[in-house]
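Same chain as my last thread, 287 residues:
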Amino acid sequence: MDMPGWLLMTLVVLAILVIVIAIVTTTATLMFNQKAMKQVNQLFSDCPKSNSEIIRKKDLAGLPLPVQKWLERSHIIGKEKITSVRLKQKGLMRTKEGGPWMRAQAVQYFRADEPGFVWQADVKMAPLLHLSGLDNYQEGQGNMSIKVLSLLPVVNAKGPEMDFSTLLRYLAEMPWFPTAALNSYIKWEPINDTSARATMSYRGVSASGVFAFSEQGDPISFTAKRYKEINGKYVLSDWGGVNKEFKEFNGIRIPSKSDIIWIEKTGNFNWYQCEISDIEYNKPELY
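reply #2:
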């Protein structure tokens, strides 16, 4: 029996639609990736590939004792000072309390001598459906972009609140490249034997948070006030991270598994479980 003409036409139209959608999403992904690559190239444009400065024990003098203990435990003494970082992450992410966990992969690039970072993530929402995320902090300005299928904008945030929040994120993630704790844009204040306050100031913006350390010296948590969008408005809210596991990469001990949380009256909203799968220092290049 011959296929009815209307059915044949429907199948042809559907096939064309599938091809068009595939072309559009592939093109959008390429453009999104090119934007991220451009930002990374800007970040590393004048970054030295090596650093002759070696960290010495006397460089830690004057820091709060728990910070000194952490840096010694990180094995940075005798190591080259870190000016650039590139790393790979994998983990689980969700957008709301009680929401489904989605698998995520990300690459991130840091500049330590002049603070900045680029974070590019791919989050699997469902089969054939994904979110593309791009966070950028350079020259003291922050921007966050999230798109469905790298095409449909969901978030495009920038302005003073993002400048503050991305600076704070940089400070929170600094234990991945611990020699940055010695840089002049970070000031330390002692609190007690196992915690210290860090204040980061750059390009006219300052933010601070509290690092808590284990008795052995590992940085086990970070807490601070960060802007959160609530009903279309930015509100300073309690935010932070908990480091669950530690691992040595390239001779330096860093947090390898962390939970990122919003601290709310009803309890902690754990929205990102992150694991570092690879990290390299002083290699200012794209993966």
